[in-house]
Structures are given as C-alpha cells and as structure tokens.
Amino acid sequence: MAEPHPSTPARVLCIRHGETDWNAAGRWQGNAPVPLNATGLAQSAALGRYLASNGARIAALYSSDLLRAWQTAQAIAEALSLPVQPEPRLREIDLGDWQGLTRDEVLAWDGERYAAYRADWRNIPAPNGESRAALRVRARAAFDDIAAHHAGQTVALVTHGGTLGMLLESLFGHLEHPSLTNTSITLVERLRPGDAWTLVRASWSPHLDESPLGETW
C-alpha cells in the first residue's frame, strides 16, 4: 500500500443500511437477518451511483455482516468496483428477547423491564441482549482499527443506526440525536493520526429525493 502524503486527511464515510420492512413497521431488528425491501434496494443502488458519479476515491469498503447492511454494501461495491470486507463489530446492538418486537409490543409484554432500560439506556441491556455501552466499545474498536490501517485514505463503513449513534458519541461526546436515515452518509475526517476527528456532515442523503424511514438510535 502506498504511503499517503502526511497532510492528506483521513475520511470515513459512515453509512446506514437501506430500508427494510421492519424499519417501515417500527420493528426492532437487532441482529436479525432482515433483508432490504424494494425501497432499501433502490436507495442502496442510488447511493452507489451517486458515489461513482461524484468520483468518490474510496480505498476500502467495510460492512457489518448482517444481511441488510451487506446488501447495501454490495450495491456500493458494484458501483465502485470494490470488494466488501466484513466487519462483525459493526453489527447492530443485540436486542435479545426484544428482537423482532415493536416498542408497543415490548411495553405490553415486558413493561417493567423496559422502564428500567429506558431509565439507564446506555448501561442496562435488553433481556439477554447487549448494552449500548458495550456496543459503543466494540464499534469504536472497529472504527479505530480500520482508521489505523487506512491513514490518509478515504474509507466507507456500512453499519446500523444504533451502532453509528454510539460510534458518534464515542468520537464527539453527547449529541442531540440527528435523524440517521436509511442510506444516509455521516462523514468524519482528521488531518493526521492522533488528531481529533471532525464531524463534517451528519445524515446526508444527496442521492435521495425524500428522507427515508427508519428510527435513529
């Protein structure tokens, strides 16, 4: 791999996966192998075309290995003639017993535990699931490893709303939740290794005519 010029910024395009039927229904996906729906496939193809037509010089493309993210990454890969590299640490939060349910279903079935979860939503996991604190640690570890391997280059990560939210919090502290919509791009960069990362743009969707569905973190 060629050595980058020392003043070349490192850029990371953090991309949320395309829409699924569960997104549209407000159903919590967690680690479930939910595929993109027709809208999500079209969004992903549009994103790939946009990146290709705007000359995106992406050196590497990484993705969560969950189906909805992988399908999104494949559409980008085809447009840019890049391989997709799987990174399981970019998976969505494991929602345990609540996976596949809506918020209303969880409230009706498991309201007491949900109230405790909401009272300390970073540290208390869903039953038999993962805490957001743990998600934050693994997402940041994946990000740091990828960034270290691609100093001075532009890379893309395809991940999930919850994962991206915790990654941004680890980089920039508490943020008011932006709407991290499906196939949106959140761009971060830094000039040199060891510098602080800068949030350049959050939840940018220039390839879409309308904002897609999908709850944020």
Model description:
With 217 residues, the protein is of the alpha/beta class. Helix content is 38%, strand content 16%. The protein is built from six helices and six strands; from the N terminus they run E-H-H-E-H-E-H-H-E-H-E-E. Strand 5 (185-190) and strand 6 (198-204) form a beta hairpin. The termini are far apart.
Set out the fold topology.
Blueprint: E1 10-16, H1 21-25, H2 38-53, E2 58-63, H3 67-80, E3 84-86, H4 103-119, H5 132-149, E4 154-159, H6 161-172, E5 185-190, E6 198-204
Helix pairs in contact: 2-3, 5-6
Q: Could you name the CATH homologous superfamily?
A: Phosphoglycerate mutase-like
CATH architectural designation: 3-Layer(aba) Sandwich
Give the tally of β-strands.
6
**Shape designation:** globular
The fold-level CATH name is: Rossmann fold
Strand content: 15-25%
Order of helices and strands: EHHEHEHHEHEE
Which strand order spans the largest sheet, edge to edge or round the barrel?
3-2-4-1-5-6
Round the mean pLDDT to the nearest integer and report it: 92
Write down the Rg: 17 Å
The helix content, as a percent range, equals: 25-40%
Largest sheet: 6 strands, mixed
Which CATH class applies here?
Alpha Beta
The gist of it:
Helix content is 38%, strand content 16%.
Structure characteristics:
globular, single chain, 217 residues, six-stranded mixed beta sheet, alpha/beta, Rossmann fold, 6 helices
